[in-house]
Design goal:
mainly alpha, flat, 96 residues
C-alpha cells in the first residue's frame, strides 16, 4: 500500500464501525496487511502530530501541575486535561 492509500484507508477505518477484515475486502487487501499499515499510520500520527497538539508535563512541572489540579478539583495525581472537564459516571445498580 502506498502512503496516500494508507492515510485514506486509515481515516476511512476510523470513521466507520467496520472490522479490519471488512475494510480489507473493500480495499481488496487481506486484513493482516491493512492491520499492519493502520498501525504504521497510528505510530506516525503519534510520533509527528501528537507532540504538536498535546503537551504532557514532566518532572517538576508535572508535580506542580498535579498540586494545582488537586487544589482546584480535589482529585490527586492529575497532571493534564484535554478540555478541563471531569464527567462522573454512575455505575449501574445491577448487571444486565
Amino acid at each position: 500500500m502506498k502512503g496516500e492509500e494508507i492515510i485514506a484507508w486509515s481515516l476511512a477505518f476510523l470513521a466507520s464501525d467496520k472490522s479490519f477484515a471488512s475494510h480489507g475486502d473493500d480495499w481488496k487487501r487481506v486484513a493482516a496487511t491493512v492491520h499492519k499499515h493502520f498501525h504504521r499510520f497510528v505510530r506516525a500520527v503519534n510520533r509527528h502530530l501528537l507532540p504538536m497538539l498535546f503537551y504532557f508535563p514532566r518532572g517538576a512541572r508535572a508535580i506542580e501541575s498535579a498540586a494545582g489540579y488537586q487544589q482546584i478539583c480535589g482529585m490527586p495525581n492529575i497532571v493534564a486535561t484535554i478540555d478541563g472537564s471531569h464527567v462522573p459516571i454512575k455505575r449501574p445498580h445491577a448487571s444486565v
